[in-house]
Amino acid sequence: MKSKCDVLVVGGGPAGLSAAIHAARGGVDVLVVETHNEIGKPLCCAEGISLSGLAQVFEPKDEWICSRVEGVKVFSPSGQSVTIDHPDAGFVLDRTKFEPYLAKLAQNAGVMIETGSRAVSLSLHEDRFISAEISNSGTPTEVEFRVMIAADGIESTIARLAGLAKPLSPADVASCAQYRLEDIAIDVGFPEMHFDPAIAPGGYLWIFPKSPTSANVGLGVVPTLARNVSPFQFLDRFVTKRFSTFRIASKMMGIVPVFQGRRTMLKRNLMAVGDAARLVDSLTGAGIATALLSGKLAGDFAAEYVRNGERLSVLKAYPEEFMRVYGRRLRMYSLAHQIFRRLKASDIDFIIGYANEIFGGRRVRSIDSVAVIRQILARRPSLLKYAGHVVWK
Ligand SMILES: Cc1cc2nc3c(=O)[nH]c(=O)nc-3n(C[C@H](O)[C@H](O)[C@H](O)COP(=O)(O)OP(=O)(O)OC[C@H]3O[C@@H](n4cnc5c(N)ncnc54)[C@H](O)[C@@H]3O)c2cc1C
Predict the structure, then answer these.
(1) Distance from the alpha carbon of residue 213 to the mean position of ligand 1, in angstroms
(2) What span, in angstroms and rounded, lies between the C-alpha atoms of 117 and 275?
(3) Most distant CA pair in the chain: distance in Å?
(4) Domain 7-44+96-168+258-332 in CATH: superfamily?
């Protein structure tokens, strides 16, 4: 492993690889360290992404797309459903191919990727972070850098050492369980979302089709609302009721954080991206699109910082620019999440009935989710009593 680079990226997920590609394309020397032995594995994700979220950073390619999403079916606790017909809504990816593809783009741009290599510590000198210890099969190497990008996911060892991400409390996360189901019959263009406190307390259940006979079927629950029932117990109850035949090809569990505002993104010459910075849609748990964009911006600004005299003011533009694009949406999703997790089944029935009025039987080309949330709150202002104190910095 080399002991010096301009940009050290910790983590080879979508955020880290996007950062590495964009930094290297900016003409600087980039090293990525990834603790697992293979890029893209193991995977814990339902793999859904919107067309706009993907295409703002990378052009979609058939080689890593499993299915195209043409809309969504949303189910309420009383069994009502609304089908939102939204051609070109997005994709279900094959991340085990998508991330190796990104790794190839990075290597073609000159990035060195070291797998099986874990960042374990961070050193500060005067006003900058200057090096990190990387452990490869127990062999330590001190790697010096000019700027660091922490893309180390939910674990966020480096982001936490830098004083950015806070340790997560059970109230700040959704605890998720997912099966890859095979031998099932589903409508491949239409993922399903089931919002019902009896199925997934504080969260929801998803069916993301990979093909007409296979899907990622999972759910997220708020641990403090689940009353000692594990996410897999909730999932088993649903799956045995919903599918007459199925085969469990794999199972996975993970957690998704909630958005914590911009304070998690930058400290001195260290930028945190993706899940490491908690840049997720708190309502749905989606984080791939924000990982790709935060990675791209951090990579671009890292290259500019190295090329233009290492002025910290250059890096300050990273959170500014990310929040300009995503801030309004992430704040609104966070507010909606605060409210949603406290809703009774009857409130959810009302919201899905209202969604049916807006979307039912119509073909939509885009959805302004912030406007929809506002309309729902205007129609039933009493829901705001569930918001509590939501504060972002
Ligand atoms: C069950 C589940 C379903 C989900 N479904 C969706 C979905 O359908 N759509 C969506 O948009 N989002 C989804 N998400 C969220 C999505 O998976 C994440 O937001 C996304 O993976 C974030 O990308 P990232 O690169 O920031 O982090 P990660 O993908 O977690 O990558 C971080 C990488 O850093 C590595 N790493 C960690 N620590 C170190 C270290 N110290 N040194 C070196 N390497 C390190 C890890 O091994 C990992 O490869 C889901 C999450 C879960 C748990």
Answers:
(1) 26
(2) 19
(3) 64
(4) FAD/NAD(P)-binding domain (3.50.50.60)
